[in-house]
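**User:**
Make up any protein.

**Assistant:**
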Amino acid sequence: MRVVPTAIPDVLVVEPRVFGDQRGFFFESWNRSALREAGLDADFVQDNHSRSARGVLRGLHYQIRHPQGKLVRVVAGEVFDVAVDLRRGSPTFGRHVAITLSAENRKMLWVPPGFAHGFCVTSESADFLYKTTDYWHQEHERTLLWSDPALGIAWPVDGAPLVAAKDAAGTPLATAELYD
């Protein structure tokens, strides 16, 4: 596996080594030893799978207590994936990393604890898988407003995306609960 830093050094792109021929392909989507050697040392406690249609935007979610690290990937379709730094003392506070994840490029993104995360579907549908380093705690879940101009995220959507009520009512960065 190859681990590539992004503009925010703690957010990493994981590019698996893919072995393919006329029969199909094979790759390791998680190898604790290989990723530990590359600087990603995480203990995962939960795997999640979501399916969404084109134009669906999920996020930007985070847990103010029990923060989750997430290793995210797409196994069918394509998404525009975003991680926003919410660590108050960080030199990259308020900045984001955005990347296209797809079944075709097989890239994964490591979103460390302390970040809000979200994605929008750019294909007909997408199956999105992610591992988390802590369990979901509804009482600690927060939503950063996906459309906050202060974030400067250029979401690739035509018109208004389809969002859940909690995502539509997200909190702008200026008044959001943050990590110390």
